[in-house]
């Protein structure tokens, strides 16, 4: 694999200037900001990620005020008590996206948030304290304990939240293949570990967050 210096120079050449490059790169929230976000906002973001999956984001976002209303502002203690009959009634509400599997995930994820709250004090504490040097471990934790957070949903959720993470998009996977870090999309523990090691190396060399390195790497693929 190439070092960070190559990656930086490649992106500078592609975008023409350091300012143009920086304007393309995402920012992360501080640990304090992640910790201060309330659990109802975390549940709302989890639900938003679940409903966005496979759907046009603007369609979901346009209906989100109605989702906030029918799910009691995503207060976990209230949502976790929603019955199957209540969810069936929501299937008749034209203001929201009527997908029963996704609707069922919301009270399940409310219970997940409550379980984390009991263990860590808040969901934000879990997110803030998880080391980015093992961000794939957080993906696996979210996928295992949450509902409908498998695949790319966990890293995409973390990007929405502002937690530092890379996302194995098609372009990034192609770039990782070109660097001979992996030879296929990283789904196995071995491949995910190899990608994490590579990103940790670039992070140590550059001091840049993983999300910025992820975007830079994706831009090394010819379009």
From TrEMBL:
It comes from Aquipseudomonas ullengensis. GO terms for biological process: base-excision repair. Coiled coil: none annotated. GO terms for molecular function: DNA-3-methyladenine glycosylase activity. The lineage of its organism: Bacteria, Pseudomonadati, Pseudomonadota, Gammaproteobacteria, Pseudomonadales. This is DNA-3-methyladenine glycosylase I.
């Amino acid at each position: 694999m190439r070092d960070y210096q190559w990656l930086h120079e490649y992106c500078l050449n592609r975008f023409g200037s350091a300012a143009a490059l920086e304007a393309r790169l995402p920012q992360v929230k501080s640990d304090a900001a992640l910790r201060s976000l309330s659990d109802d906002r975390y549940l709302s973001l989890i639900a938003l990620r679940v409903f966005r999956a496979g759907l046009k984001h603007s369609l979901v976002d346009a209906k989100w005020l109605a989702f906030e209303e029918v799910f009691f502002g995503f207060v976990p203690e209230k949502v976790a008590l929603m019955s199957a009959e209540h969810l069936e009634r929501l299937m008749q509400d034209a203001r929201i996206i009527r997908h029963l599997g996704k609707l069922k995930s919301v009270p399940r994820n409310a219970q997940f948030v409550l379980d984390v709250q009991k263990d860590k004090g808040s969901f934000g504490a879990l997110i803030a304290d998880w080391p980015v040097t093992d961000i794939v471990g957080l993906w696996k934790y979210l996928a295992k304990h949450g509902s409908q957070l498998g695949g790319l949903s966990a890293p995409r959720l973390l990007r929405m939240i502002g937690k530092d993470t890379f996302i194995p998009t098609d372009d990034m996977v192609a770039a990782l293949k070109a660097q001979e870090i992996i030879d296929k999309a990283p789904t196995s523990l071995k491949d995910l570990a190899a990608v994490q090691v590579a990103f940790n190396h670039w992070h140590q060399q550059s001091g840049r967050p993983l999300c910025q390195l992820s975007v830079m790497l994706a831009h090394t693929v010819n379009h």
